[in-house]
Amino acid sequence: MIEKNIYLISGMSGSGKSVCLRHFEDMEYEVIRGLPVEFLEHVIQHTSSNLAIEIFSKPLIANQEKVLDIIKRYNIKVVFLDTSNKSL
Q1: What is the pTM of this model?
Q2: Are strands 77-81 and 6-11 parallel, antiparallel or unpaired?
Q3: What confidence score (pLDDT) does residue 14 get?
Q4: Max alpha carbon distance in the chain (Å)?
């Protein structure tokens, strides 16, 4: 089994998720924007590339138990970006 790096990117609107994902693209990661939580495990199982996956905060929170289980099973790293209202 090929070891792949998987990152989940989430966070507040305007926090820099798009910039973060562009950096992953520059590092030749497969980048998926706005992936529905229902497809997360399927994508992980059927991709051999390093992945950076954007999941929106509300679905992530609404499905937190399922997502946490997937994060543990596949050793996924989570990046949650935030910003202050003043910065926006």
Answers
A1: 0.86
A2: parallel
A3: 83
A4: 46
The per-residue DSSP string of 4-58 comes to --EEEEEE-TTSSHHHHHHHHHHTT-EEESS--GGGHHHHHHT--S-EEEE--HH
Give the contacts of 11 (CB within 8 A, at least 6 positions apart). Answer: 17, 57, 79, 80, 81, 82
The residues facing 54 across adjacent strands are: 9
One-letter identity of residue 74: Y
Q: Contact 54/21 with Cβ under 8 angstroms? A: yes
Average pLDDT by consecutive 10-residue portion of the chain (88 residues)? 85 88 96 94 93 88 90 94 78
Q: Residue 70: phi, psi to the nearest 5?
A: -65, -40
